[in-house]
């Protein structure tokens, strides 16, 4: 199955800008479905970015993060061709991870 | 004194004549369907009503009308929410049917970069064929079940086909065929006809008050309103095909929607696409 | 893309990294528990709290003071409460954490980001907002908390333009 | 102005006060009239969603034996259906007034 994580990591030699879009419902647990039953909370709690064996960014998310969540950040000390490992875990124990090459 | 008065008289007379001349050809022409004149008048209406909106910007709907929303949209466009539908559409396009054929076999140029010519008038059948109808026909011709017109699969396919045409000018043709002119006129009538308990027509919102708010939404101008379809709407937190957009608009004016791909829907799509000829395809789009 | 030809980058970074680690090491001894909570495990408690002030306390164990060195970018009127693009950048130094709070949401804490050394103190994300509310960005820099707040109007959409 | 006057009159007409409690026969008659008007509106492809929901409410009340409410709902549904028929017929010509020329 194609990964749920889309990522664009581009470096201008010194700073690497990372944009990520993740396919996930991010249900808050407060919304009712068509039959009027509450859709249980199902949201990503932790999203980690690691490069060259070091965490470069860690996101802790609550229920207020939009569906198909997006996040952008930048970091130093990486160069073109380095591997960026992205992994997330949600409140139901679901998870996914992928590795992207910095362009 | 006399001369001044007669000059005044002559002036007003000629003005009246000019005014009469201007309207009369249109009045006469209205009975004979004249799509070229309709398209010109339609575009000029919006170009004059919003002089500082760049012509090609009209296809960006509400974002051509409101700076703050345009900024939010451009931020979203950096990594748009329709990215998944686009990838799914690309994959579906490449996956062969059970009989080994693919969508590329059903469409000119393999289906790539042709969205700007849809809908077209099929002189054989004597009716308007939209991209969504053509896709389902291709599926059925290859022994596959048709997709729902309002669900994600259809949206993913049309998203990919629209993406391959991005930037190309809308290029809808009306053949010299009485039935084509009738379909165009039928679409125009549908566009201007009030319906639903709210007693709105498409024009009530998209011609009379684009740029204004109806509740929280900024209304899109009718010119180029279909160029961005299919769209990912935050409201639906999902993709929306042209059919889904028409159906939801109907129910919001409390009119019972017609069946997807009904004559009226295909004809109004034909009318709206034709009058937007020359404006770029910008689908798939992201909307509030 | 200019090629970077300064002193051998990794050596310089290692030196700089070592120095800051020592500093942080020294700094966090007195209030280790609060900082530990913010650092590694998922701040379950903070995300459950309704009220913004309580959530900030649960997450960082101290209060924040407004700072004009934080630039919070949020729309005046959200085009849709479900997808509100909000981003923050700061010129503060030694930033270790950035968090976002939406006061009127069922739970005030929306997101909390750890900013390791070498990562630019700036984040862009898309939040859900239940209704019109103040949005606050909290930046933890050199052990102290700073904040910036903006009002974002959210209306229940109806027709869809 | 003329069009909305007629609409108002139509709606007012249907709310004539009921003298006594409605019987099942009253309900059946009112429902049949409403259904006929609604079919006509559907035939003109100009049905309103509120006609459909009010007609359903009338049926639900009728099935539940609450004939007063059922008749009132059926009357309202009929008025809505008639208004949508009126809208469709008048729009056959008046749409041209909004056309961009």
Automatic annotation (TrEMBL), chain A:
**Entries under InterPro entries matching the protein:** Ig-like_fold, Ig_E-set, SoxZ, SoxZ_dom
Instruction: Tell me one Pfam family matched here.
Output: SoxZ
| Stored Gene3D superfamilies | Immunoglobulins
Q: Which residues form a coiled coil?
A: none
Give the Sulphur oxidation protein SoxZ domain ranges. Answer: 6-100
Q: Which domain of life is it from?
A: Bacteria
Q: Which NCBIfam families match?
A: SoxZ_true
Question: What is this protein's name?
Answer: Thiosulfate oxidation carrier complex protein SoxZ
Q: Which gene encodes it?
A: soxZ
From TrEMBL, chain B:
Please report the stretch or stretches of sequence annotated as the Cytochrome c domain.
Answer: 182-288
Residues annotated as binding substrate are 245
Q: Which residues bind heme c 2?
A: 202, 205-206, 249
Q: Where in the cell is it found?
A: Periplasm
Names of required cofactors: heme
Binding positions (heme c 1): 106, 138
Keyword annotations from UniProtKB, A to Z = Electron transport, Heme, Iron, Metal-binding, Periplasm, Signal, Transferase, Transport
One GO biological-process annotation of the entry reads: sulfur oxidation
Superkingdom of this protein's organism: Bacteria
Catalysed reaction per UniProt?
A: L-cysteinyl-[SoxY protein] + thiosulfate + 2 Fe(III)-[cytochrome c] = S-sulfosulfanyl-L-cysteinyl-[SoxY protein] + 2 Fe(II)-[cytochrome c] + 2 H(+); S-sulfanyl-L-cysteinyl-[SoxY protein] + thiosulfate + 2 Fe(III)-[cytochrome c] = S-(2-sulfodisulfanyl)-L-cysteinyl-[SoxY protein] + 2 Fe(II)-[cytochrome c] + 2 H(+)
Q: What is its EC number?
A: 2.8.5.2
Entry keyword annotation includes Heme: yes
Q: According to the record, how does the cofactor bind?
A: Binds 2 heme groups per subunit.
Q: Where is the signal peptide?
A: 1-29
Question: Per its UniProt record, what Pfam families does this chain match?
Answer: SoxA-TsdA_cyt-c
The catalytic residues are 249 (cysteine persulfide intermediate)
Q: GO CC terms on record?
A: cytochrome complex; periplasmic space
Under Gene Ontology molecular function, one entry of this record is:
oxidoreductase activity, acting on a sulfur group of donors, cytochrome as acceptor
- Share what the entry says about its subunit structure, partners included: Heterodimer of SoxA and SoxX.
UniProt family annotation: Belongs to the SoxA family.
The protein's name is SoxAX cytochrome complex subunit A
UniProtKB/TrEMBL annotation, chain C:
Where is each Ig-like SoxY domain found? 57-159
Origin superkingdom:
Bacteria
Q: Mind telling me which PROSITE patterns this protein's record contains?
A: TAT (PS51318)
According to UniProt, the name of this protein is Thiosulfate oxidation carrier protein SoxY
The organism encoding this protein is Bradyrhizobium rifense
UniProtKB/TrEMBL annotation, chain D:
Q: Where is the signal peptide?
A: 1-21
Q: Is Signal there in the keyword field?
A: yes
For this entry, the protein name equals: SoxXA-binding protein
Record keywords: Signal
Q: What is the lineage of its organism?
A: Bacteria, Pseudomonadati, Pseudomonadota, Alphaproteobacteria, Hyphomicrobiales
Q: Which domain of life is it from?
A: Bacteria
């Amino acid at each position: 199955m194609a990964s749920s994580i889309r990522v664009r990591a581009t470096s201008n030699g010194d700073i690497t800008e990372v944009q990520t879009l993740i396919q996930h419902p991010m249900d808050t647990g407060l919304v009712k479905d068509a039959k009027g039953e509450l859709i249980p909370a199902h949201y990503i709690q932790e999203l980690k970015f690691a490069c060259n064996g070091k965490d470069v960014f860690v996101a802790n998310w609550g229920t207020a993060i939009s569906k198909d969540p997006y996040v952008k950040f930048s970091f130093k000390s990486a160069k073109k061709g380095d591997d960026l490992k992205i992994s997330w875990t949600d409140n139901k124990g679901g998870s996914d991870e992928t590795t992207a090459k910095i362009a | 004194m006399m001369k001044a008065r007669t000059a005044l008289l002559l002036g007003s007379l000629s003005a009246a004549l000019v005014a009469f001349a201007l309207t009369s050809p249109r009045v006469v022409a209205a009975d004979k369907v004249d799509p070229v004149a309709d398209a010109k008048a339609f575009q000029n209406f919006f170009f004059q009503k919003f002089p500082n909106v760049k012509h090609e910007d009209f296809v960006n709907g509400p974002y051509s009308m409101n700076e703050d929303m345009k900024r939010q949209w451009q931020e979203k466009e950096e990594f748009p929410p329709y990215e998944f539908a686009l990838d799914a559409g690309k994959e579906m396009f490449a996956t062969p049917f059970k009989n080994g054929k693919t969508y590329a076999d059903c469409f000119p140029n393999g289906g790539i970069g042709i969205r700007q010519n849809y809908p077209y008038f099929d002189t054989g059948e004597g009716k308007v064929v939209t991209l969504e109808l053509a896709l389902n026909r291709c599926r059925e011709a290859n022994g596959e079940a048709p997709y729902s017109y309002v669900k994600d699969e259809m949206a993913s396919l049309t998203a990919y086909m629209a993406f391959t045409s991005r930037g190309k000018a809308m290029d809808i043709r009306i053949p010299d065929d009485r039935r084509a002119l009738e379909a165009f006129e039928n679409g125009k009538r549908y566009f201007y006809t009030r319906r639903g308990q709210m007693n709105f027509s498409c024009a009530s919102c998209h011609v009379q008050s684009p740029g204004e708010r109806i509740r929280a939404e900024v209304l899109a101008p009718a010119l180029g309103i279909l160029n961005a379809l299919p769209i990912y709407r935050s409201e639906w937190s999902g993709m929306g095909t042209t059919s889904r957009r028409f159906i939801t608009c109907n129910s919001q004016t409390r009119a019972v929607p017609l069946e997807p791909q009904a004559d009226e829907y295909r004809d109004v799509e034909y009318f709206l696409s034709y009058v937007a000829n020359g404006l770029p395809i910008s689908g798939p789009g992201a909307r509030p | 893309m200019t090629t970077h030809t300064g002193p051998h980058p990794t050596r310089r970074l290692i030196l700089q990294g070592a120095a800051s680690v020592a500093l942080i090491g020294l700094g966090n001894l007195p209030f280790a528990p609060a900082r530990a909570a913010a650092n590694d495990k998922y701040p379950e408690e903070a995300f459950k709290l309704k009220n913004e002030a309580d959530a900030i306390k649960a997450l960082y164990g101290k209060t924040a003071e407004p700072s004009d060195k934080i630039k919070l970018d949020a729309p005046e009127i959200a085009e849709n409460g479900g997808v509100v693009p909000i981003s923050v950048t700061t010129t503060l130094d030694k930033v270790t954490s950035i968090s976002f709070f939406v006061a009127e949401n069922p739970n005030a804490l929306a997101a909390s980001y750890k900013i390791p050394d070498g990562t630019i103190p700036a984040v862009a994300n898309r939040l859900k907002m239940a209704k019109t509310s103040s949005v606050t960005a909290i930046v933890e820099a050199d052990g102290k908390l700073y904040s910036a707040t903006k009002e974002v109007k959210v209306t229940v959409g109806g027709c869809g333009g | 102005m003329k069009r909305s006057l007629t609409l108002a009159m139509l709606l007012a007409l249907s709310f004539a006060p009921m003298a006594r409690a409605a019987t099942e026969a009253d309900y059946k008659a009112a429902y049949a009239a409403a259904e006929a008007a609604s079919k006509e509106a559907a035939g003109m492809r100009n049905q309103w969603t509120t006609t459909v929901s009010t007609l359903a409410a009338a049926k639900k009340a009728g099935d539940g034996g609450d004939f007063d409410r059922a008749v009132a709902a059926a009357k309202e549904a009929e008025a809505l259906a008639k208004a949508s028929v009126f809208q469709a017929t008048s729009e056959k010509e008046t749409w041209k007034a909004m056309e961009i020329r």
